[in-house]
Amino acid sequence: MNIFVCIKQVPATSKVEVDEQTGVLKRAGVKSKMNPYDLYALETALRLKEETGGKVTVGTMGPPQAESVIREAYMMGADEGYVFSDRRLGGADVLATSYTLSQAIRTIGDFDLILCGKQTTDGDTAQVGPSIAEHMGIPHAAWVSRLTPRGKGILAEQQLQDVIETVLLPFPCLITVEQDIYTPRLPSMKKRRETKDKAITVFGLEAFLDQNPDNYGLAGSPTQVERIFPPGSDIQQETLDSGDLAKQLHDKLKEWKFL
Amino acid sequence: MAQLVVIQRKCTGCGVCVSACPFGAIDLKDTAEINAACRMCGLCEKSCPEKAIMRLETKAKSVDKEAWRDILVFCEMTEEGLHPVGPELIGKARELAPSAGYQVDALLLGHRCDKAAEALRHYGVRNIYVYDDEALGFFRAEMYAACAEDIIRKKKPSVVLVGATALGRSLAPRLSTRFRTGLTADCTELQLKENSDLVQIRPAFGGNIMAQIVTPHTRPQFATVRYKVMDAPVRQKEAAGEVHRMPLPKKAVSEVRFHEKRSIPKAVNVSDADILVVGGRGLKKESDLDLIKELAGLLGGEYAVSRPLVEKGWDTNARQIGLSGRTVKPKLIITCGVSGAIQFTACMEGAERIVAINADRNAPIFRVAHVGIVGDLYDILPRLIEHIKREKSQYARV
Fold this sequence. Notes:
The structure holds two protein chains of two kinds.
Chain A lengths: L1 E5 L2 E3 L5 E2 L6 E2 L5 E3 L1 H17 L2 E7 L5 H10 L3 E5 L9 H15 L4 E5 L10 H9 L3 E11 L2 E7 L3 E8 L2 E5 L11 H6 L6 E3 L20 E6 L8 E3 L4 H11 L4
Chain B lengths: L1 E5 L9 H5 L5 E3 L3 E3 L8 H5 L5 E5 L13 E8 L2 E2 L2 H12 L7 E7 L3 H7 L6 E6 L8 H15 L3 E5 L2 H13 L4 E5 L1 E4 L5 E7 L4 E6 L6 E5 L16 E4 L11 E7 L11 E5 L9 H11 L2 E4 L1 H5 L20 E5 L5 H4 L7 E6 L12 E4 L2 H21 L1
Helix pairs in contact in B: 5-6, 7-10
């Protein structure tokens, strides 16, 4: 099975602070890591490869430093890695990001299965995976917690509101996986040594089929952020910080008739 | 779309613009170069002593906004009938519609949806478009997208609202991509401008920030909203709204095959609980969750957890409150040792009464709490539990 896994570099901390006066982001010295949900997608790819043979390719869109998440993927067992890096790809929203990834994947080759994590911890939209599938004209299933290869396709269990539906998707297809699918393996020291000098291919817009910069980055993004602001709070508030706090809370709950 | 450009022959490479730019969007080589981080604030243009930076107005890929009218609300079928997020969004849409002179229509997809279609007639929509077919009896995003695409091409709605359920969040991106337009996930507030631009507000950057997002040059404008974020609508006695049965469009084909369907054992649903007690990172060990469970039990409610505890494996996603878990709107919520990141507070601040217990006076949870208790949960909870038990046993004796 020829598998492609989309991964992303995200800030290592989930807290980004905003200057309340100016509304500008304070982003000095924020460290990066691989989006934790992508580890589950990569683990799934590696298990499927172990079971059926084939190859696991990983790719990420980002600045050249995003190479470090490809290195991490190598240490877990990925066979080949790419960084899609180009100034003109920056500032992309869901539509432009997924278009970039679909173009990049097409440039690399034909895959049976494309795997994504269920969402990222920075954007938190969970929309890029299904959107890539639409750009590529292939079926997808999201929030999948179990995958079983079956002939020229794969059985995917997707959890909906009050049912679990299992569908058979023909290759090629795209799947976004839930956290409970597998426990990701740790990067191995042996693999680290073996892949220390393993090549990572970096390319940008010039390699894509569609080279019109208007379709990428900020220019290709239909949504615009008008403003950012700290969340307001205009509620009646009361602080209890001295005396018998348990008793005071007990009295509150009685006053509100919960007791 | 506008663009800021550097006129190379005028630029002396002095670097004034580089320090003026708040986004780090200008690189200095021989001359200044503006990169993708540019947010078009124009401070560089103002700062340049050589007037070497200018704003270039390029023609926007603009759409005729008049051609796209009204609000379409996608309504989801579950095994038990209509998912309640549909009526919630209809309620919100009806509140928004008048400012642009719009009407509200509903779209219902599934199999055997007669009852649900009839139920929708009580929420004040003009038209209810129903695609009812065996082929829609299980969820395939391509099939659902083909039906939604069919009605969107025919009726040209300006705004399409989708409940941010597992199904909705799988369908919506497929659809917005098909129309090459914008989609904003998990909006917590919506407004409609007179010019019909939908103002979409959501927590962003995973931190303590709200972003206000618009889709100014394309239509339709897609947004998803979580269950229980908008107020439950009032059901009207009189049935109104016309039900239109639509034939399955020719494009609705898919090679995805049904394999099996099984219902999820009736799990706890923290979204529907009236009283919630929540444990957070302040809990030192897994067994301390028992305190949370015991208090929840005594109050006749459910217990829930914040994301760090799920990451530690102490409990499951089904009990997690937050953007990657559930949204709740109970009558009472007591958070214990929860710091209150925006991903958490965004999903519980609709609660009627919020009590927060945290040892850190500066914890962000206190911004949304109605009663903030600065103290040690290991001191407060056991004694509160004791108080409640003592009182209950008194009544028992009487």
